[in-house]
Amino acid sequence: xxxxxxxxxxxxxxxxxxxxxxxxxxxxxxxxxxxxxxxxxxxxxxxxxxxxxxxxxxxxxxxxxxxxxxxxxxxxxxxxxxxxxxxxxxxxxxxxxxxxxxxxxxxxxxxxxxxxxxxxxxxxxxxxxxxxxxxxxxxxxxxxxxxxxxxxxxxxxxxxxxxxxxxxxxxxxxxxxxxxxxxxxxxxxxxxxxxxxxxxxxxxxxxxxxxxxxxxxxxxxxxxxxxxxxxxxxxxxxxxxxxxxxxxxxxxxxxxxxxxxxxxxxxxxxxxxxxxxxxxxxxxxxxxxxxxxxxxxxxxxxxxxxxxxxxxxxxxxxxxxxxxxxxxxxxxxxxxxxxxxxxxxxxxxxxxxxx
Length: 355
Hints:
Blueprint lengths: L1 E5 L1 H7 L8 E5 L3 H6 L3 E2 L6 E3 L6 E4 L2 E4 L7 E4 L6 H6 L9 E2 L5 E2 L4 H7 L1 E2 L11 H12 L4 E2 L1 H13 L7 H10 L3 H10 L3 H4 L7 H8 L7 H11 L12 H9 L3 H6 L7 H11 L4 H9 L4 H16 L11 H28 L1
Parallel strand pairs: 2-5, 10-11
Antiparallel strand pairs: 1-2, 1-8, 3-4, 4-5, 6-7, 8-9
Helix pairs in contact: 5-7, 5-8, 11-12, 12-15, 14-17
């Protein structure tokens, strides 16, 4: 049994980057031997094992054979006779097909180091065109390494995948995962478009540079949540579309419809109704979503103005006698109270600004 460090960890070290995670491949072993050595198996059909101390993933060396559609349409061979070179050959790009042994020696049968030096993204073998997921991975790596270029031969392989219709078999969850992993969802989408793959992935995956530019003038994403929510809104990705987006990102993206109203509202004693309407549309009951939205607005003075007003609205409580009134009466009481709160708040705010 031999163990090798593989993939991104080697690539990043050669590029002078700090590896985020380590992946290991095990050659000449079996599931039983791995378990006897204390490893915990996490996959049955595709044996992956967790190291008992480090918690890192160790996968048995494998080969693949296309047997169906999509990125899951493969049969795996993890026999102990599979060599390291055979395992590296089934990987996507040469820069990801480099291994390192226990002595620090590099095994690089597909000249990945040369492509790193020359800043090239190149497929390892013809098997690249069998897996539609590799189109998304290629786009993601192009964004990650923006100074790299995709070699013409690999672009041709992408066209084979697009023309084959295999992209249609990608699940919405998997598309989202690649989008999530990308350093910049906007650039990721642009790369997919340049490869001719964006529209094939989903009809709702349409790039809108004008809307993106306009919106980003008022937003400054400060986390992956904010950036992805901005992307969902700017690209107008439908909740009925193919891409399966988690609710927290979807909910936040819906708030961006109110971005221009927030940024363009000017405090004025006669604009109390507009202020109330704005706060109602923000739905202040969803506190975490609202905080995420306000956090990514660049105009912090406007954010502070809104937060202080929202706190006043939240502090309003119905009087005990009013709680027993009809729904229509309660609604009117709340409206009148909010109107008074907004008028008083604006008056005090404007007085402070003048002084």
